[in-house]
Amino acid sequence: MHWEMTLRQAQDTASIEMKIMLERIHAMLQSCTTQSPLFPPTILYNEGWLLRLVLDWFSAHRVSDHPLSFYDGSRWFSEALLPSAFLARPEGDPLAEGWTHADGVVGHLAIGKKGKADTSLLQEATHFAVLEAKMLSGLSSGVKNASFYDQAARTVACIAEVISRAKRCPLAIPHLGFYVLAPQSQIERGVFAQAMDRDSIGQKVEKRVKQYTGAKDEWHLEWFLPTFEQIEIGVVSWEELIATVREHDSADANSLKKFYDECCHCARLTTPPSRHARGVHHQEETPG
């Protein structure tokens, strides 16, 4: 029919116009590799895009027994939002906080059920990991109404809240994790050691719960503690991730290393010698 042909022609025209715009964006991004960039190179060479490149690679390659392993049905999303157990109550809440931003989420997820970036678990989810990507900075400090409640504690608590909303038993999610991805030099300096300490995280969430004088005790007992028992918490270096890629494809590893070097250069960070052990740098519990 005539209207169907007109609609198809309009769609084709829109597709061509969008392709032209995407090509222009590509050309502008390429200027970051020249001596005359059109905008600060950090718009491209940053931990956000580095994370996306890493996740794109892992999603296309079956790598077993790794923090960034993908499983059947897993997907990834960057710039996700995680709900909090401490969102404002209808009657007003001086202790409340907002949703938490996550640099990346991986697993059996649904994105955008209520907004463009909100994260929820699929009904039979067995994989859920939250990733925080860093170059020079450490994890952020507390929220307005709880200065002690830092980014690591907040993220783990939000993971528990995502699981709670899905009514999925945490023990039924064997691949559950929170990982910080950072330069090896920053890890060796101990930038993340205190914030990522398991005891510290557990104590900060418990202190946050106690601010509510019993109103959050049930959530803490039924959802946070089982999640905390199940979750893996650790720090992974960008160097280790590149080494893992190299085990499967040296060309991809070389390209990723080049991009990482540019990120380091833009962040005024010198890449350290290639000294690393494969896997997660676990934060040890503080002995009693």
Estimated helix fraction = 40-55%
The fraction of residues in strands falls at: 15-25%
| Rough outline | globular
Order of helices and strands: HHEEEEEHEHHHEHHE
Average pLDDT confidence is 88
Helix and strand content put the structural class at: alpha/beta
Number of helices: 8
Straight-line distance between termini: 78 Å
Count of the domains: 1
- Taking pLDDT < 50 over at least 5 consecutive residues as the criterion, the unreliable ranges are 269-279, 282-288
Q: Strand sequence of the main sheet, in spatial order?
A: 1-2-5-6-7-8
Cα-atom Rg, whole angstroms? 21 Å
Main sheet summary: 6 strands, mixed
Question: Could you explain how this protein is built, in words?
Answer:
This protein is α/β, with parallel strands linked by helices and 288 residues long. The protein has one domain (41-282). The chain is built from 8 helices and 8 strands. The strands form 2 sheets. Strands 1-2-5-6-7-8 form a 6-stranded mixed sheet. The chain has a two-stranded antiparallel sheet with strand order 3-4. Helix 3 links the parallel strand 5 and strand 6. Helix 3 crosses helix 5, helix 3 (151-166) packs across helix 6 (217-230) and helix 7 runs antiparallel to helix 8. The longest helix is centred in the N-terminal third of the chain and has 29 residues, at 2-30. It is globular. Residues 269-279 and 282-288 have low confidence and may be disordered.
Layout of helices and strands, plus pairs?
Blueprint: H1 2-30, H2 47-60, E1 75-82, E2 100-107, E3 109-111, E4 119-121, E5 127-133, H3 151-166, E6 175-182, H4 184-188, H5 198-210, H6 217-230, E7 232-237, H7 238-248, H8 250-266, E8 281-282
Parallel strand pairs: 5-6, 6-7
Antiparallel strand pairs: 1-2, 2-5, 3-4, 7-8
